[in-house]
């Protein structure tokens, strides 16, 4: 029986993929004078922590390691600005959380805590989360399953009692390795009360 929903953040609870794309490009353009193209972002950089993105750019000889901190700091600053300017109270997601009040809910994300909590707060969702587990809370973020495993341990629940909602390939890999029931969505707009309840009923019927 499903007792908890473990949500990814970007592309699931918030439509923030564009926010991260925009803020990183603003920082890269200011510090090193180039931007990441949209197709490259989707195929290579979407859904991974900023430090991992910078490591990839270094391996591609597009950045020097001594530039990392300046870019990282500026990217976080730009992210907060973008969130403040673009986030809004999301009544669809509030309806989702109100309609699943019998289930425990957490957010497991590759974002840092400050930006994740700001996104959830600005969209009206933070109060529904029992806790938020960020990339600062794990040694190895997604695609490794550590975040989801830690969340289940903290909830004191077995993987069979949890449903993970994910959209990105790296997040889905982490979710599947965690042993939990996995609901793969195409993106933010799929995450509705009706869809979540349908999937929970599907998993519960299989128990």
What would you say this structure looks like, in words?
The protein is α/β, with parallel strands linked by helices. The chain folds into two domains: 4-14 and 88-205, HAD superfamily/HAD-like (Rossmann fold); 17-86. The chain is 50% helix and 10% strand. The chain has a five-stranded parallel sheet, sandwiched between helices. Strand 4 (162-166), helix 8 and strand 5 (181-184) form a beta-alpha-beta unit. The protein is globular. The mean pLDDT is 94.
Q: How does the SSE layout of this entry go?
A:
Layout: E1 4-7, H1 17-31, H2 38-45, H3 50-59, H4 68-86, H5 91-99, E2 104-108, H6 113-122, E3 132-133, H7 146-155, E4 162-166, H8 169-178, E5 181-184, H9 193-205
Helix pairs in contact: 1-4, 4-6
What would a concise description of this structure say?
Helix content is 50%, strand content 10%.
Shape: globular
Helix content: 40-55%
Number of domains: 2
**E-strand count:** 5
Element-by-element helix/strand order: EHHHHHEHEHEHEH
CATH topology category name of the largest domain? Rossmann fold
Q: Name the quaternary structure.
A: single chain
Q: Kindly provide the name of the CATH class of the largest domain.
A: Alpha Beta
Q: End-to-end distance, in Å?
A: 7 Å
Broad structural category: alpha/beta
Placed side by side, the strands forming the largest sheet appear as: 3-2-1-4-5
Biggest sheet character:
5 strands, parallel
How many separate helices?
A: 9
Give the full name of the CATH homologous superfamily of the largest domain: HAD superfamily/HAD-like
Averaged pLDDT: 94
What is the rounded Rg? 17 Å
């Amino acid at each position: 029986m499903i007792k908890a929903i473990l949500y990814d953040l970007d592309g699931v609870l918030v439509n923030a993929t564009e926010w991260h794309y925009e803020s990183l490009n603003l920082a890269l353009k200011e510090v090193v004078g180039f931007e990441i193209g949209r197709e490259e972002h989707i195929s290579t950089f979407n859904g991974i922590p900023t430090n991992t993105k910078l490591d990839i750019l270094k391996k591609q000889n597009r950045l020097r390691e001594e530039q990392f901190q300046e870019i990282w700091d500026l990217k976080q600053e730009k992210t907060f600005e973008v969130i403040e300017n673009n986030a809004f109270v999301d009544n669809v997601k509030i309806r989702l959380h109100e309609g699943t009040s019998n289930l425990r809910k957490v957010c497991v994300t590759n974002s840092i805590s400050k930006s994740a909590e700001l996104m959830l707060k600005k969209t009206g969702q933070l109060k529904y989360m029992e806790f938020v587990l960020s990339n600062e809370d794990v040694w190895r973020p997604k695609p490794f399953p550590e975040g989801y495993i830690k969340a289940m341990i903290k909830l004191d629940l077995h993987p069979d009692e949890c449903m993970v909602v994910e959209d990105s390939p790296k997040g889905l890999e982490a979710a599947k390795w965690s042993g939990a029931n996995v609901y793969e969505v195409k993106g933010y707009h799929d995450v509705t009360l009706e869809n979540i309840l349908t999937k929970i009923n599907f998993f519960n019927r299989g128990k």
